[in-house]
């Protein structure tokens, strides 16, 4: 047996191992056990005179197809797929010895987040009377705790911790230093944009300070989608809990409403921010991610809706009515289209060829582009008529940012569908664009009040 | 001779438990022994032995542990438990009953069939 032969066999076995690792039904230890079997079989076959590659083929064949195998394993260990959802990963998984302290640290961070929203109350700021204060600072209650959780989990260095702390401090300043009136447009804009900016700061902690890496950024995008899903699920459960709390206490003549609105809802929501993140981390790679599945379902539906809308616009010859609320709806629509694109990208197997789904995706992006252009026309019309205001400028900026993203995405996507450009180009474009969102969100929070004279 | 899937599946548990009564063993060795015992007639898909072993472990009939021989690979060994021995005894009783019944019915048919077929056979010659 030559050395070359040996490494060849090792390569084949490594490939086989990679295939088995993709099966969720097979645990790491199962793979190890099967590999031991495979190697024993190969040794026996080579000793009886077969060449390495022949022995490998026969051994794999005798092992049985992976489909049958994982089905049998799934039948035997049906609990496995579910249990792992809440239990921290296997002790031998790559959590870096964090496994045992994972739960207490998460509980600690969630508690900090939950109590953070009650801190202002000690200084006499009431949740219902000073609602705008809470709205402006919404991102500052739970997100520092979440960033702390990830800083601990990824064991980031002191420099990254310093950067995180500085960014949160800047956020706190931006939210509270300016003399904004409660009903000013800037207050609303800060309430929307500061959580966004701080969420991307959490992203820095999530990637363990390695924010230049495209791959890690993509991981953060994936995380965001999964987190949203878990958060919505927890919110649903919280709704049920709230309803029962109010209902049962009412039955014995006690009014729980104050407790619910003062403690249960705000503290629960803040804690859920951290708990959702922990759930995403804990179940990572155990269950198929949900966001790409939802993307698959909704991409064709959204594409059909947008096309129908465009046909209706052309048919009736109606321009888009430029009321403010309507414009916000279109902004949200573009965000959703972008999200669908992002999650399709994040889950795509880079080696598969283009298919029907990619074409549907392209239709979706292009029709969103056309709609975005119509909206942009409407906004510029409104601005030339009434002049710049914080709201309109923010809407204009967001539209331009989304338009640039979607336009270049469409171009790259077209190149990909026609087989001229590799898919990674599109992936890289999206991950790099995250900095644009971060930059814009900070500009709106920090510069807009100054530019528009605290309007 | 091809032995049907159902029969292979039904005999798998007593075979594995029986082999493990002779001493602890690991997957590949168990499979080799099944092969030797049946003269190569009882063919299993290699991989499917492991879900079976894991099931026996879950039921408490066997227990497993990992061991690394010096200079070797980590390997998972299985050992039969007292409960497993009881299960094996029970299965042996069941199999004995089935085998007896089959013997009885086959003995009866060969007796009843041979007198009829034999003359016809001989007259044909």
From TrEMBL, chain A:
Residues in the signal sequence: none
Membrane-crossing residue ranges in chain numbering: 105-125, 131-152, 159-181, 187-207, 227-249, 261-281, 293-315, 327-347, 359-380, 400-421, 433-452
Keywords per UniProt: Membrane, Transmembrane, Transmembrane helix
Top-level division of the source organism's lineage: Bacteria
Protein name: Permease prefix domain 1-containing protein
Species, as recorded: Micromonospora cathayae
UniProtKB/TrEMBL annotation, chain B:
Pfam families xref list: PadR
Ranges that cross the membrane: none
Entry-linked SUPFAM superfamilies: Winged helix' DNA-binding domain (SSF46785)
Domain Transcription regulator PadR N-terminal: 16-90
Domain of life the protein comes from: Bacteria
PANTHER family assigned: PADR-FAMILY TRANSCRIPTIONAL REGULATOR, TRANSCRIPTIONAL REGULATOR RV3488
Protein name: PadR family transcriptional regulator
Source species of the chain: Micromonospora cathayae
Taxonomic classification: Bacteria, Bacillati, Actinomycetota, Actinomycetes, Micromonosporales
């Amino acid at each position: 047996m030559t050395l070359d032969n040996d490494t060849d066999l090792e390569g084949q076995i490594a490939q086989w191992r990679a295939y088995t690792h993709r099966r969720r039904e097979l645990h790491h230890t199962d793979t190890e056990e099967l590999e031991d079997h495979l190697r024993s079989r190969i040794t026996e076959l080579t000793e009886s005179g077969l060449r390495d590659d022949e022995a490998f083929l026969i051994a794999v064949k005798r092992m049985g197809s992976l489909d049958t195998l994982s089905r049998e394993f799934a039948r035997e260990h049906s609990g496995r797929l579910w249990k792992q959802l809440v239990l921290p990963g296997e002790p031998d998984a790559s959590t870096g010895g964090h496994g045992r302290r994972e739960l207490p640290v998460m509980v600690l961070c969630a508690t900090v987040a939950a109590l953070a929203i009650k801190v202002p109350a000690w200084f006499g700021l009431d949740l219902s009377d000073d609602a705008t204060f809470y709205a402006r600072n919404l991102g500052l209650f739970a997100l520092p705790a979440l960033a702390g959780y990830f800083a601990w989990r990824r064991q980031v260095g002191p420099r990254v911790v310093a950067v995180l702390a500085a960014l949160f401090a800047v956020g706190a300043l931006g939210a509270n230093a300016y003399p904004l009136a409660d009903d000013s447009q800037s207050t609303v804009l800060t309430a929307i944009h500061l959580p966004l900016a701080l969420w991307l700061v959490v992203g820095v902690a999530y990637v363990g300070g390695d924010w230049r890496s495209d791959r890690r950024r993509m991981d953060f995008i994936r995380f965001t989608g999964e987190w949203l899903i878990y958060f919505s699920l927890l919110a649903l459960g919280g709704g049920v809990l709230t309803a029962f709390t109010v209902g049962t206490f009412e039955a014995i003549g006690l009014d729980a409403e104050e407790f619910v609105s003062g403690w249960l809802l705000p503290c629960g929501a803040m804690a859920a921010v951290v708990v959702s993140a922990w759930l995403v981390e804990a179940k990572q790679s155990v269950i198929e991610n949900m966001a790409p599945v939802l993307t698959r379902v909704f991409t064709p539906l959204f594409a059909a809706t947008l096309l129908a809308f465009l046909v209706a616009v052309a048919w009736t010859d109606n321009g888009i009515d430029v009321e403010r609320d309507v414009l916000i709806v279109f902004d949200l629509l573009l965000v959703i289209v972008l999200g669908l694109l992002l999650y399709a990208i994040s889950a795509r197997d880079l080696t598969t060829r283009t298919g029907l789904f990619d074409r549907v995706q392209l239709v979706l992006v292009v029709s969103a582009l056309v709609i975005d252009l119509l909206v942009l026309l409407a906004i510029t019309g409104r601005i030339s008529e009434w002049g710049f205001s914080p709201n309109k400028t923010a809407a204009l900026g967001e539209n331009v940012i989304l338009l640039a993203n979607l336009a270049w995405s469409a171009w790259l996507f077209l190149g990909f569908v026609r087989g001229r450009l590799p898919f990674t180009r599109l992936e890289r474009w999206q991950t790099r664009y995250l900095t644009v969102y971060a930059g814009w969100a900070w500009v709106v929070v920090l510069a807009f009040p100054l530019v528009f004279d605290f309007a | 001779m091809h032995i049907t899937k159902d029969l292979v599946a039904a005999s798998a548990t007593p075979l594995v438990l029986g082999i493990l009564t002779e001493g602890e063993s690991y997957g590949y060795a168990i499979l080799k022994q099944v092969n030797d015992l049946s003269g190569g007639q009882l063919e299993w898909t290699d991989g499917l032995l492991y879900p079976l072993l894991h099931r026996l472990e879950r039921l408490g009939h066997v227990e497993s542990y990992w061991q690394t021989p010096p200079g070797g690979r980590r390997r998972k060994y299985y050992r039969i438990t007292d409960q497993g021995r009881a299960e094996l005894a029970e299965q042996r009783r069941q199999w004995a009953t089935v085998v007896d019944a089959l013997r009885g019915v086959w003995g009866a048919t060969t007796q009843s069939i041979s007198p009829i077929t034999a003359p016809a056979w001989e007259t044909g010659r």
